[in-house]
Structures are given as structure tokens and as C-alpha cells.
Design brief:
The structure is a single chain. The protein has one helix at about 1-15; strands at about 30-40, 40-45, 45-50, 55-60, 65-70, 75-80, 85-90, 95-100, 115-120. By secondary structure, the chain is mainly β. The strands form three sheets. Strands 2-1-4-7 form a four-stranded mixed beta sheet, with no helix packed on it. A three-stranded mixed beta sheet has the order 3-9-8, with no helix packed on it. A two-stranded antiparallel sheet has the order 5-6. Helices cover about 10% and strands about 45% of the residues. Strand 1 and strand 2 form a beta hairpin. The protein starts with a helix and ends with a strand. It has one domain: Sandwich (Immunoglobulin-like). Bound molecules: copper (II) ion (CU). Copper (II) ion binds near residues 101, 103, 104 and 109.
């Protein structure tokens, strides 16, 4: 019986459609989203968040300094050369939000983007 409950919980977790990079535990800590920036792109570049669920965006640079800015969300996180920067926030509005690299990093800088899908 116990095993069935665990199995169901696992299925429900997977069925949310959000691919958790790290399991943050039961609602206490913000969910951690790791994003790697390198010339010239972000990995992942599509992220699904839930409205009202606090998250920590952790931006890691794999090479030169980069940043990630979501103008509409008032977020701008920077990561120095080979370093990590993080910002905590709670998406309050459903929709798609485009983020761009906010530190000039070379010829492909303008094409570095991330799409945040905030779902209800
Ligand atoms: Cu850049």
C-alpha cells in the first residue's frame, strides 16, 4: 500500500510537465533552476515555472561574463567569468517572458535568449 502511494506521488510529480533540475523538497525552499551561459546561448533556453511558486535562478557562466535580464520581470542577474550569480523571485503573472544576455560578450551576444513560460 505504502509503495503504491509513493509510486503515485512520483507519477504526479512527473505529470506536472515541469522538468525539475533539482528536487527542492516540500515547498519550503525555492525551486532551484540552473542555467548555464556560454558564447552564445543559454542551457536550458526554455524554462517552465509555476505562477506563485518561488524559484532561485542560478546563472553560471561557462566562459566569459554573461548576464540574464527579463525586463518585464525586473530581473537582471549577472555571472562573472566562470562564476555564478543568483536571484530569487516568484512569478506573479502567467505568460511567456523573453530574457536576454545583459553583458556584452561578443558577436553572438544579441542572439542569446531564454524563454520563461509561466503557467497557472
Ligand atoms: Cu552577452
Amino acid at each position: 500500500m505504502k509503495l503504491i502511494q509513493v509510486a503515485c506521488a512520483a507519477v504526479a510529480f512527473v505529470a506536472t510537465g515541469v522538468a525539475p533540475l533539482h528536487f527542492a523538497g516540500p515547498q519550503s525552499e525555492p525551486r532551484r533552476i540552473d542555467i548555464t551561459a556560454r558564447k552564445y546561448g543559454f542551457e536550458p533556453n526554455q524554462i517552465t515555472l509555476k505562477e506563485g511558486e518561488p524559484v532561485t535562478l542560478v546563472l553560471k557562466s561557462a566562459d566569459v561574463p554573461h548576464g540574464l535580464k527579463f525586463r518585464e520581470l525586473n530581473i537582471d542577474v549577472k555571472a562573472g567569468k566562470g562564476k555564478t550569480g543568483e536571484v530569487e523571485f516568484t512569478p506573479e503573472k502567467a505568460g511567456d517572458f523573453e530574457g536576454h544576455c545583459s553583458v556584452f560578450c561578443g558577436v553572438g551576444h544579441g542572439s542569446m535568449s531564454v524563454t520563461l513560460h509561466v503557467v497557472e
